[in-house]
Amino acid sequence: MNERDRRLEVSDSLANGRHKRAGRTGQPAYAGCSPTSEWLAGQLHSWFVHHQRDLPWRRDRDPYRIWVSEVMLQQTQAATVIPYFEQFLQAFPTVRDLAAAEEQEVLRLWEGLGYYRRARDLHRAAKAIVAQHNGQIPDDPALLGRLPGLGRYTCNAILSQAFDRRLPILEANSQRVLSRLFGRTDDPRQSAARRWLWQAAESILPDREVGTFNQALMELGALVCTPAAPRCSQCPLAARCVARQLGQQETIPARTPPPEILHVQEAAVVVHRGPQVLLVQRPSKGRWASLWEFPHGPLLDRESHEAAAARLLHQLTGLQAKVGPELLTIRHSITRYRIVLTCLEAEHASGEFQSDFYVEGRWLSLADLAVYPVSSPQRHLARFLLSPSRQRRLF
Prior knowledge:
Endonuclease III, domain 1; Nucleoside Triphosphate Pyrophosphohydrolase; 7-stranded mixed β-sheet
C-alpha cells in the first residue's frame, strides 16, 4: 500500500461504521460518508479563495512574518493583532532586527497584547536563530522545535505555510471543525481527544498547498464553524459533517465548565516626589515579568484602600508617604480573576527605594512614562495622569 492509499484508509477509519453511536469515550458518532483528503482539500480551497480575510501576514510566505503572526494570534483575535503586527514588523522587519533589540523595547511594542511571555520567548528565539542558524528560520521541525516558545502547533503552522511542509495543525478553531466533521463528542482539551484530533488532522492533509489547507481549516472555524450558532448553510463541508447530520453541531464538541470567577480588590499608589513619580520594575519571572508599574497589590480582609496603599507602599518600596485622594478605578480581568484596581495619589514623606520584590525603582517625569513597557491597566493609569484635564487640575 502506498502512502496516499494509507492516508485515505486512515481518514476513512476515523469516521467508519464501527461507531454507530456516541459513547463515553467520545468516539465518532455516525457511520456516514467519510470525507477523503482530496474532497476536503478541494472544498476548503475553493471556499478559502473566495472568503478568506485580507490579513497582513497572508500577503507573502515570509517565515518570519508568519512566525510573528502565529505567536501574536495565540489567545488573541485577529482584529486585535493586526495593528500590533504592523507596528512590530515596522520596528523589527527581520529576525536580525528583532534579535538586536533590547527586551524592554520588544515588551513596549507588545504592550496591550498580554501574555508577555510570548514576546520574551519570541525575542530569545530570534537571538538563537541569529546565533545558531545565521539568521535563517530553519526548515526543519526538529530544529525549530528547540527554540523558545515554539511548540508543535506553531512549528507546524510556520513550516506548512512558509515551506509547504506536510505537517498538521491543531488549535481552537481547527479542533472545533474536526470535532464536528468527524462527530468527536468529548472535550478537545482533554489529552485523549487531542491525540485523536492530531491524528485526524494529519490523515486529511493534501499532498501540496498544505499551508493553504491549514489556513482554510482555521479560517472556517473562525468565520463559519463558530463555537455558538455555527452557520452550517454556508459551510463547504456540511454535506459530510457528522455533527450536522446528527443535529448536534451546537453541542459538539463538549465544553468543560469554566472555572469559578474570583473577584479581587487591589490598590495602586502614584507616589509624587516634587514633579516626579515612582515607577517600579517587576521581577523577571511570574505575571507581567520585567514590566514596569506603579506599586500595587491586593487589599487585606476589611482593609480600606487608603490603609492598603500606605501598607503596600512601605512593604514593597520601603517608602513612607502621605496618602491622598483616589484618582480613578480600573476594572480588568486576568484569566479567571476579575480585578478592581483603585488608584490613589500619595506624597513622598521619607525613605529611599528598597524592595525584596521589585527589581528597580525610578523617579520619572510624567512625560517619561511613555517609553516604559507597562501592563494595560497601568497604561490606563499613566494616560490618566497625562490627560489635559488632569494637568489643568494640577496647575
